[in-house]
Amino acid sequence: MIEFRNVSASYDGELPVLRDVSLTIPDGDFVAFAGTNGAGKSTTMRLINGLLKPTSGEVLLDGVPTTALRTSEVARKVGFLFQNPDRQICQPTVREELLFGFTAVGEGGPDAEACVDAMIEAFGFDADAEPFLLNRGTRQLLALASIIVREPDVVVLDEPTTGLDYRECAKVMEAVGRLNAAGATVVMVCHDMEVVGDYARRVIAMTAGTVVDDGPTFKVLRRPETLRRAHLLPPQVTEVSMLLGADPALAGTAVARADTLDEMAAAVAALASEAARAAARERAALGACAPMGGE
Ligand SMILES: Nc1ncnc2c1ncn2[C@@H]1O[C@H](COP(=O)(O)OP(=O)(O)OP(=O)(O)O)[C@@H](O)[C@H]1O
Pfam families per the record (predicted)? Predict the structure, then answer.
């Protein structure tokens, strides 16, 4: 579990960039931090992985303050994926890159080799490829795999899909989704609300170093005040649903609650067939009332 207790943080020791933030992230959660530029989202990630210490308050990992943990102890629990994979890739081949997390802490050996082989198989990597010759999406996947291979309890992702095309983004996020389904806690910063809507179960919206909202993804992404304060646009289906739901004729219908394409398609199909049934009833009623032929 990750806990922030009244955490404030600053880079220069004076100007606070995080102000009195309290939050709890239970094991197995999938949380997206979203909000304005400079709100303090990446700073929050650095506090979780211990790269930054609070100026006041406490960040606790499984009940232990990060200030009482060695960097290696935090790294054992928390894997961190940078926005730019090239900040963490440093080995000449894919295989060595995946092994590096083990060898760097003196844990190389047959077990580590087996984990790496499984990861190469699962991601379909070319083990001997040179990482820097891979395309951007594959480098991001490699950076992610080199974290997952160590099986951390928590994975922190700082804008994991920035600069990726749709297919690359889907590959990375599906790998993250599988990791979460296997029990890992996922905490990510993400500006793309489509990705947030597709994967995160909870959204923490931030502005100017404070949390302005925290709750189930679509509850947060449907609150006009949150959207305004954190400069967020909901995913397109949710936005259409909110627009249609504002029409009194559709308020309270499934259309007004749809957050996914499937939900919206089903809601619209149900409305269309209800309209068709109503029209048929009307025609039948008109037919029944029509005057009989003859004088
Ligand atoms: N290394 C640093 N040194 C000094 N100030 C920093 C540093 N990193 C971030 N800041 C400042 O801290 C504040 C919060 O930055 P942070 O990167 O946490 O915001 P963010 O919400 O992640 O923003 P963005 O969405 O633009 O990445 C900003 O005012 C930023 O300029």
Answer: ABC_tran
Q: Residue 115: which H helix or E strand, with range?
A: helix 110-123
ipTM above threshold 0.95? yes
Q: What does DSSP assign to residue 163?
A: T
For the chain, how long is the longest CA-to-CA vector? 104
The model's pTM is: 0.89
* CA dihedral (66, 71, 75, 79) positive or negative: positive
**42 C-alpha vs ligand 1 centroid, how far in Å?**
7
Q: Going by C-beta distance under 8 Å and a sequence separation of 6 or more, which residues neighbour residue 178? A: none
The SS3 assignment for 40 reads coil
Q: Please state the domain extents for the chain.
A: 2-234, 235-285
30-35 and 202-207 as β-strands: parallel, antiparallel, unpaired?
A: parallel
Cα–ligand 1 centroid distance for 174 (angstroms)? 28
Residue with tokens 């809507």: 197
Report the nearest atom of ligand 1 relative to the CA of 46: 18
CA angle 231, 221, 39 (to 5 degrees): 35
How does pLDDT run across 237-270, given as a tens digit for each residue? 999 999 999 999 999 999 999 999 999 999 999 9
